[in-house]
Write a structure and sequence with these properties.
Elements (H helix, E strand, L loop, with lengths): L7 E2 L1 H7 L2 E7 L4 H6 L10 E10 L5 E14 L6 E15 L13 E4 L5 E2 H11 L27 H11 L6 H4 L3 H10 L4
Parallel strand pairs: 5-6
Antiparallel strand pairs: 1-7, 2-3, 3-4, 4-5
The structure holds zinc ion.
Zinc ion binds next to loops.
């Protein structure tokens, strides 16, 4: 019988005991994600459905496996209207104690660094949700809302985007990831060594 999702736990002990957790978490509980989402505070449906198991893999790795589902509402990077992103993440993370151990993992496992005996499970779920958001979320072609043709709204680009374009035009060597308005996603991707 899976237990409720804890905020944090000892993942090594959870692996040893083969614990599993299932439940729903309000998206407003994820501070970094909530900054990106549109109106998740007052939306009772803005939740993530999580199903997580801690177990020992066949090759001896300590694993967190499971599934996280949600529907995230984010601003379109073309028209700033609302885009719904259906998230269905199948999770397969190997717990590692040092960065060096990440190099020894098989390709189908993403590393999750847990240096001590406590793991912030909410932050892990939040990272997975953030990673599921495309680099440039936008409506399909022709589906953007019409632009306002007078006043300051004529330019759909946010100040951030405008600045990024300037940086790119000036031939700066900042990578595309670093100039992305959702720059924090790039940080997570780098930490995970994920090339997605
Ligand atoms: Zn749009």
């Amino acid at each position: 019988m899976p237990e409720d999702i804890p905020i944090s736990l000892d993942p090594w002990r959870a692996v040893k005991k083969g614990l599993s957790f299932a439940g729903e978490v309000a998206l407003s509980q994820f501070p970094r994600l909530a900054k990106i989402l549109i109106g998740c505070e007052n939306d009772p449906h803005a939740r993530a459905v999580c199903d997580l198991r801690f177990e020992r893999g066949r090759d001896g790795h300590a694993l967190v496996v499971g599934r996280i589902r949600s529907c995230l509402r984010v601003p379109c990077q073309r028209c700033l209207g609302e885009v719904e992103i259906d998230v269905d993440v199948l999770l397969r993370l190997a717990l590692i104690r040092t960065d060096q151990m990440a190099c020894e993992l098989p390709e189908d496992l993403d590393p999750l660094l847990v240096a001590d005996e406590q793991m912030d499970l909410m932050a892990v779920i939040e990272d997975e949700l953030l990673l599921a958001i495309p680099m440039f979320p936008r409506h399909g072609d022709g589906l953007c809302r019409p632009l306002v043709t007078e006043g300051v709204d004529v330019n759909p680009a946010s100040p951030d985007l405008a600045m990024n374009e300037t940086a790119l035009a000036s031939g700066s060597d900042t990578s595309r990831e670093e100039t992305h308005p959702f720059a924090l996603l790039a940080g997570i991707r780098r930490n995970r060594g994920d090339s997605k």
